[in-house]
């Protein structure tokens, strides 16, 4: 790719043009692992790479993508998450599972305490309505998968046990 092509590509990437293409072309496709989710989600964060945003990838029982939607956005270091809004979308889309993904504009993909806390809060809420939180992925210089790290499974079993009381 020459310099001119690179500039056009970068301009298209930052304009959100690729983001809308990703959202439309992904419908009905199957997602199998965190690496695939990262590749799908990464272009969505390019549009406003200095603002933390939270997307949800809503899937059916066979992991076919129903929709990818930006749910929340915030500042360079934080974004508010409203569990109720996620649940409303899950129900309206008839999704059986979803994957949360958000970016860290700093590039650091390590989950913060706030990232872990909101994952637990959302996880408990969706488990109570028989929906699965498959993963929470942090996008930066690379990505971090809370499922691949084993952390999500550990906390999921704790809140599943709470709901069995």
At a glance:
This protein has one domain: 3-Layer(aba) Sandwich (Cytidine Deaminase, domain 2), CATH 3.40.140.10. It has six helices and five strands. It has helices spanning 3-15, 17-26, 34-46, 83-93, 113-127, 151-163, and strands at 53-59, 65-73, 97-103, 132-140, 142-145.
Task: Characterise the protein shown here.
This protein is of the alpha+beta class and 165 residues long. It has one domain (3-163): Cytidine Deaminase, domain 2 (3-Layer(aba) Sandwich). The protein is 45% helix and 22% strand. The chain has helices at 3-15, 17-26, 34-46, 83-93, 113-127, 151-163; strands at residues 53-59, 65-73, 97-103, 132-140, 142-145. The chain has a 5-stranded mixed β-sheet, with helices on both faces. Helix 5 links the parallel strand 3 and strand 4 (132-140). The longest helix is centred in the C-terminal third of the chain and has 15 residues, at 113-127. 30% of the residues are buried. The model has no long low-confidence stretch (mean pLDDT 87).
